[in-house]
Amino acid sequence: MTQAIETLQNWMDNTGNIVFYSGFGVSHESGIPDYRRMEANHFDTYKYPVETILSRPFFERKAELFFQYYRNRVLAPLLTADPNPTHQKLVELEKADKLRMLITQNIDELHQEAGSRKILELYGSVMRNNCPRCERFLSALDIYERSTAPTCDVDMCGGMITPDIFLYGDALNPDILNNAIYYALTANLFIVAGTSLAEYPAASIVHHYTGNKLVLINEEEGPLDHRANLIIRAPVSEVMAQLTVNPTP
Predict the structure, then answer these.
(1) For 73-109, how does the pLDDT look when each residue is reduced to its tens digit (9 = 90+)?
(2) Which of 49, 85, 164, 247 is paired with 132 by a 20 to 30 Å CA distance?
(3) The domain spanning residue 156 has which CATH number?
(4) Structure pTM?
(5) What is the three-class DSSP state of 15?
(6) CATH number at residue 20
(7) Is 125 in a helix, a strand, or coil?
(8) Which domain holds residue 100?
(9) Which of these, 158, 166, 159, lies nearest to 120 by C-alpha position?
(10) CA triplet 88, 118, 102: central angle to 5 degrees?
(11) How far apart are CA 193 and CA 94, in angstroms?
(12) Spatial separation of the C-alpha atoms in residues 118 and 101, rounded to whole Å
């Protein structure tokens, strides 16, 4: 692994055009559990698969159960999580003007909390919750502290507060997806970390990278491993902590 990290360090040192694709594995290293992999426990408690609960039709039909799950399984661990070394290293890269864009699948805003500003959120953020009728805003903490499905009480509006996140059955925001594709197309060094790239259409972004420095950092194998120029099988933070942010020559 040392040789692979040395290669990555060399590529980082010699470019000011890095694009970083952040998957769930990055958030997981901040102590956020993968609720999608706790299927048996979920089913025993909620009687529905997670893909059903976190879907647009379920949200529209069974809002009370959706928000019960959303508060307990999604918001609770996110509200107590802190940025880890990967989040911090990406801030360093951005401040050094080497990171051109951070593309993330994560919905926790830990990148923003760490200090990152150049971000494309593919799946939105739990920190943003709005009424579709009057655009009233509620924070994630506002949602968490309510015991029922949150409805808007501004001027008797009554609209259902909606989390600004991607749910199963949704289409990705086309503007964000197109921007992500643009940065993939124009990147010199494209680092994908904490994801096996098994979920589409988000994973399709990688297909648009045409350079010769595609780096995959993930503990698991994935269907796009054959496209990589460098694969590092290790926890993301363990790898990022060994890298140094140096000025581009």
Answers:
(1) 899 999 999 999 999 999 999 999 999 999 999 999 9
(2) 49
(3) 3.30.1600.10
(4) 0.93
(5) coil
(6) 3.40.50.1220
(7) strand
(8) 2-32+83-123+172-240
(9) 166
(10) 70
(11) 17
(12) 5
